[in-house]
């Protein structure tokens, strides 16, 4: 994914969540529904999150400095990690607290029809945002499952938006069920149950994102198929084999490769330099994200000992 990858999905989610947050809060003022209040905070958190993702994309494009010689590509991982923390604190913890409070001290709803109308409109808007994120993700997902895509993606924005939108849709359904059961049964405790369900759902999604973003922030290496491609491209021409190799993503679009390679014995200094240049060109032709490649030439001592 390019540096601006996922921007369309982020902007769609930003616009949808900002409008939905206002509508939900107005509905809460009319109805007093804790589900609507929880959903209002959830949408407000999501709106802030999309802003942070856009900020991460912008700051990650800064040029490398002496203090940060490998650039700022991991800014995108950092801000995605902050998004996960906000989703947990502003979304999950608040909704769980509010749900428990309403279950212990239920209050009757006023004007529930307003809440139902707002929730139905919100489901339609979130569905549009979710469909946009799915459309942008398909080209990158390939043959992988959606779960594999979320686990393996090196660019954080689309997995974050996908999970946020999925959580928002299910949360809206929980809120609709809570409000609906409160009206049908006359027991407002169901509104609190719906709020509690929203909190648990957001907590699960936030924890998944925290785990995945932490892994990216610490530093992940190339996927097995990408690593196999790199080794195959290195071990050609005058490179007899790859003795050992290390890879790490410095950002979604920047892969660092460091390897010790065994060269054909008897090469001149100029031939060694050319062999290294050729190996780098082969790798970059197959793995465009391999922006930084450091190769240490050596002899294949295993063949010499024989």
UniProtKB/TrEMBL annotation:
<keyword id="KW-0813">Transport</keyword>
<dbReference type="GO" id="GO:0006829">
    <property type="term" value="P:zinc ion transport"/>
</dbReference>
<feature type="transmembrane region" description="Helical">
    <location>
        <begin position="77"/>
        <end position="97"/>
    </location>
</feature>
<keyword id="KW-0812">Transmembrane</keyword>
<dbReference type="GO" id="GO:0008324">
    <property type="term" value="F:monoatomic cation transmembrane transporter activity"/>
</dbReference>
<keyword id="KW-1133">Transmembrane helix</keyword>
<dbReference type="InterPro" id="IPR036837">
    <property type="entry name" value="Cation_efflux_CTD_sf"/>
</dbReference>
<feature type="transmembrane region" description="Helical">
    <location>
        <begin position="160"/>
        <end position="183"/>
    </location>
</feature>
<protein>
    <submittedName>
        <fullName>Cation diffusion facilitator family transporter</fullName>
    </submittedName>
</protein>
<feature type="transmembrane region" description="Helical">
    <location>
        <begin position="109"/>
        <end position="128"/>
    </location>
</feature>
<dbReference type="InterPro" id="IPR040177">
    <property type="entry name" value="SLC30A9"/>
</dbReference>
<feature type="transmembrane region" description="Helical">
    <location>
        <begin position="9"/>
        <end position="30"/>
    </location>
</feature>
<dbReference type="InterPro" id="IPR027469">
    <property type="entry name" value="Cation_efflux_TMD_sf"/>
</dbReference>
<keyword id="KW-0472">Membrane</keyword>
<feature type="transmembrane region" description="Helical">
    <location>
        <begin position="189"/>
        <end position="211"/>
    </location>
</feature>
<dbReference type="InterPro" id="IPR002524">
    <property type="entry name" value="Cation_efflux"/>
</dbReference>
<dbReference type="InterPro" id="IPR058533">
    <property type="entry name" value="Cation_efflux_TM"/>
</dbReference>
<dbReference type="Pfam" id="PF01545">
    <property type="entry name" value="Cation_efflux"/>
</dbReference>
<dbReference type="GO" id="GO:0016020">
    <property type="term" value="C:membrane"/>
</dbReference>
<feature type="domain" description="Cation efflux protein transmembrane">
    <location>
        <begin position="10"/>
        <end position="217"/>
    </location>
</feature>
């Amino acid at each position: 994914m390019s540096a601006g990858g996922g921007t369309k999905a982020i902007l769609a989610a930003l616009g949808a969540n900002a409008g939905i947050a206002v509508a939900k809060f107005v509905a809460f003022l009319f109805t007093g529904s804790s589900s609507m209040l929880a959903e209002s905070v959830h949408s407000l958190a999501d709106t802030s999150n999309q802003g942070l993702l856009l900020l991460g994309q912008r700051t990650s494009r800064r040029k490398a400095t002496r203090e940060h010689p490998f650039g700022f590509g991991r800014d995108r991982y950092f801000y995605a990690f902050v998004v996960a923390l906000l989703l947990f604190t502003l979304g999950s913890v608040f909704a769980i607290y509010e749900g428990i409070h309403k279950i212990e001290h239920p209050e009757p709803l006023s004007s529930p029809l307003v809440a139902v109308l707002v929730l139905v409109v919100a489901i339609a808007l979130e569905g549009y945002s979710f469909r946009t994120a799915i459309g942008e993700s398909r080209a990158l997902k390939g043959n992988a499952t959606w779960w594999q895509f979320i686990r393996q993606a090196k660019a954080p924005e689309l997995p974050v938006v996908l999970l946020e939108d999925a959580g928002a849709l299910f949360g809206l359904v929980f809120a609709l069920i809570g409000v609906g059961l409160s009206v049908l049964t006359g027991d407002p405790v169901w509104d609190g149950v719906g709020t509690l369900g929203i909190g648990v759902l957001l907590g699960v999604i936030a924890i998944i994102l925290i785990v995945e973003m932490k892994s990216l922030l610490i530093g992940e290496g190339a996927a097995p198929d990408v690593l196999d491609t790199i080794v195959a491209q290195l071990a050609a021409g005058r490179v007899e084999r790859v003795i050992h190799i290390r890879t790490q993503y410095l950002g979604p679009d920047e892969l660092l490769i460091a390897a010790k390679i065994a060269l054909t014995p008897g090469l001149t200094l100029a031939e060694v330099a050319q062999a290294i240049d050729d190996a780098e060109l082969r790798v970059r032709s197959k793995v465009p994200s391999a922006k930084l490649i450091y190769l240490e030439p050596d002899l294949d001592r295993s063949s010499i000992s024989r």
